[in-house]
Design goal:
- By secondary structure, the chain is an all-alpha fold.
- It is about 85% helix and about 0% strand.
- It contains four helices and no strands.
- The two termini are about 25 Å apart.
């Protein structure tokens, strides 16, 4: 997978993970529990498929889903390292 696509996919998963976390903190997750479960099921299938050819990307995607704030913090730290 091209690096640009991998980055965009990771960012998308982070955003959905952050939304899920915010809904959980606000007590709104129960209302959408079935939909979130289906999203998680599809995401798990995607991560499993990607892990066959790119285990590092699959790990990054799983982190972005399960711990989106951590994923974002690491990505921001990497970005700052690349700045002159």
């Amino acid at each position: 997978m091209e690096p640009e696509v991998a980055t965009l996919l990771t960012e998308l998963i982070e955003k959905v993970g952050l939304l899920r976390r915010d809904m959980q903190h606000r007590g709104e997750l129960e209302r959408y529990e079935a939909r979130i479960a289906r999203i998680e099921q599809k995401f798990s299938a995607l991560a499993e498929f990607i892990s066959r050819t790119n285990p590092d990307l699959a790990k990054a995607l799983r982190t972005a889903w399960q711990q989106p704030a951590r994923s974002l913090a690491f990505r921001n730290a990497e970005h700052k390292k690349q700045e002159p």
